[in-house]
């Protein structure tokens, strides 16, 4: 069963409503710059676990794992977790980001790498209103994503171009493209 957008029409090419946000994020990341490598829709396995990632960006200032959510309405981060003003998915996506981070840390540990690792929760719907922030991960709207990545100041040493390429290769060797579209 296909989920429908608020207009009642399916997304582009019959994709699910949530995929629209991932496609919008992938489109924005196309313009981030040649010093960054972007992997969209990857199923990464390491340390006995596996997770599906919406986006992974590798650059001189670190590795960014990004979860896109195409949610509208108020999205409030409270001491009890995430609350939404609209009906829909009720889960807190920060749990998914913790799982993503664990898999990437295990992958990097196995290769004796220790790059800066940054989790990002990106809300893509133009009518989303973020109130507060996740205590553990960067929380932002899509229009701020590229700027955040490009201006992020890592605590660890910057990665060289060859280290960026090596990390991209490591992730590709331990992943496959996920089910979604031809991104």
Descriptive report:
27% of the residues lie in helices and 31% in strands. A hairpin with a 2-residue loop joins strand 2 (49-59) and strand 3 (62-69). Strands 8-6-3-2-1-9 form a six-stranded mixed β-sheet, with helices on both faces. It has a three-stranded mixed β-sheet with strand order 5-4-7, with no helix packed on it. The chain contains four helices and nine strands. It has 183 residues and is of the alpha/beta class.
Secondary structure category: alpha/beta
The termini sit apart by 22 Å
What's the Cα radius of gyration?
16 Å
Sum up the overall morphology in one term. globular
The overall pLDDT average reads 85
Question: Would you spell out the secondary-structure blueprint of this structure?
Answer:
Elements (H helix, E strand, L loop, with lengths): L16 H13 L7 E10 L2 E11 L2 E8 L3 E6 L2 E4 L9 H17 L6 E7 L4 E4 L6 E4 L3 H7 L9 H13 L1 E3 L6
Parallel strand pairs: 3-6, 4-7, 6-8
Antiparallel strand pairs: 1-2, 1-9, 2-3, 4-5
């Amino acid at each position: 069963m296909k989920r429908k957008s608020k207009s009642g029409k399916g997304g582009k090419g019959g994709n699910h409503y949530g995929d629209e946000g991932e496609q919008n994020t992938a489109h924005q990341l196309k313009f981030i710059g040649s010093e960054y490598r972007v992997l969209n829709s990857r199923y990464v396995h390491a340390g006995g676990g596996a997770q599906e990632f919406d986006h992974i960006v590798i650059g001189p200032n670190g590795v960014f794992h990004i979860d896109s959510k195409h949610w509208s309405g108020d999205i409030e981060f409270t001491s009890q977790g995430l609350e939404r003003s609209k009906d829909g998915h009720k889960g807190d996506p920060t749990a998914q980001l913790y799982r993503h981070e664990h898999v990437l840390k295990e992958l990097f540990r196995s290769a004796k790498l220790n790059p800066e690792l940054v989790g990002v929760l990106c809300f893509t719907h133009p009518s989303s209103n973020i109130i507060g922030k996740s205590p553990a991960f960067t929380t932002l709207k899509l229009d701020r994503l590229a700027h955040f990545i490009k201006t992020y100041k890592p605590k660890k040493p910057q990665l060289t171009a060859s280290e960026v390429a090596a990390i991209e290769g490591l992730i590709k060797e331990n992943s496959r493209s996920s089910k979604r579209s031809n991104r």
